[in-house]
Design brief:
By secondary structure, this protein is an alpha/beta fold. It has three domains: about 50 residues, 434 Repressor (Amino-terminal Domain), CATH 1.10.260; about 120 residues, 3-Layer(aba) Sandwich (Rossmann fold), CATH 3.40.50.2300; about 100 residues. About 35% of the residues lie in helices and about 20% in strands. The chain contains ten helices and eleven strands. The strands form two sheets. The chain has a six-stranded parallel sheet, covered by helices on one side. It has a five-stranded parallel sheet with strand order 7-6-8-9-10, with helices on both faces. Helix 1 crosses helix 2, helix 1 packs across helix 3 and helix 4 packs across helix 10. The two termini are about 35 Å apart.
């Protein structure tokens, strides 16, 4: 935009939390300076986000200017049925929306056992879905493009974050089940997000499916249970004689699975729409002050 104020070295320094001299050294690619890789990456990422010119070797030279390419990074796990289904549903929704506006969508499944993973060339933006924090840091440090986090909590202002509003869902569940119930959920890769999910009920009331055994299911006999995901809901229904089961579902018609299971609708399409809008704004250099979004 013509009236938009151009970012300065001081703006970059303030955002990155470093001195003006440090920014100058990094942007001029001066050798022999004692600047850590982490600080260098932070300065370059902030400069790029603020549309400030960065050294040519750090630019994404393979990016097409007439058709943006979005990389969607994710990791599936063997013992997280509802989480895996939600990730695949999100991917389908994102691919469909980006395709409609002429963007390319490149799926990038990450190997959870691998260490260093080479950066993918030709990406203009990245949407990361539920990655471990160390995997995310290793990945994000290799790119100087907009990166959006879905179902993750990362303590860094550089990254927009969208995740399920579990507090609001639990509040709704209390209207339907009362105050005394258990939560059964899959384990999520992102540690802080997993801790958030487990913290919405008192200690001992939140159970991870991957940790459950026969005794765990027996413990739920005669209890009211809130389950995150329809696939997990069906497993709980088959293995525990619960008094009442309420499922957090993104399905259009959850009754198709079982008429005996009640559900709270989780609007996953809102996540996909929000992710698309934020990414498009980032390409246009329109940055919102708000960086965390919760979706019910």
């Amino acid at each position: 935009m013509a009236n938009e104020k151009k970012a300065t070295v001081r703006d970059i320094a303030a955002k990155a939390g470093v001195s003006v001299a440090t920014v100058s050294y990094v942007l001029n690619d001066k050798k022999g300076t004692k600047i850590s890789d982490a600080t260098r990456k932070k300065v370059l990422q902030v400069a790029n986000l603020l549309n400030y010119s960065i050294p040519e070797k750090y630019k994404n030279l393979d990016a097409k200017k007439n058709a943006y390419t979005i990389g969607v990074m994710y990791q599936l796990m063997a013992d997280t049925p509802s989480r895996n289904m939600e990730i695949m549903t999100l991917i389908n929704l994102l691919a469909e929306r980006f395709f409609r506006i002429g963007f390319n969508c490149q799926l990038i499944p990450l190997d959870s056992e691998a260490g260093y993973q080479k950066p993918v060339q030709g990406l203009d933006g990245i949407i990361a879905i539920d990655l471990k924090e160390d995997v995310f840091k290793q990945m994000s440090g290799q790119y100087y493009i907009p990166i959006l986090c879905l179902d993750m909590m990362i303590n860094d202002f550089l990254f927009y974050q969208i995740h399920t509003d579990m507090d609001s869902i639990v509040a709704k569940a209390k209207e339907l089940l009362g105050d005394d119930f258990y939560l059964v959920t899959d384990r999520y890769r992102n540690e802080k997000y997993n801790e958030y999910l487990m913290s919405v009920l008192p200690k001992g009331k939140s159970l991870l499916f991957s940790d459950m055994n026969k005794k765990s299911f027996e413990k739920l006999a005669g209890k009211k249970v809130l389950v995150y995901g329809m696939q997990l809901g069906m497993i709980v229904k088959q293995n525990a004689k619960c008094k009442d089961i309420l499922v957090i579902s993104n399905e259009e018609n959850p009754a198709l699975y079982s008429s005996e299971i009640k559900s709270i609708h989780h609007d996953i399409e809102k996540k996909a729409n929000l992710a698309m809008n934020i990414m498009m704004n980032a390409f246009e250099r329109k940055f919102d002050v708000k960086h965390e979004y919760k979706v019910f």
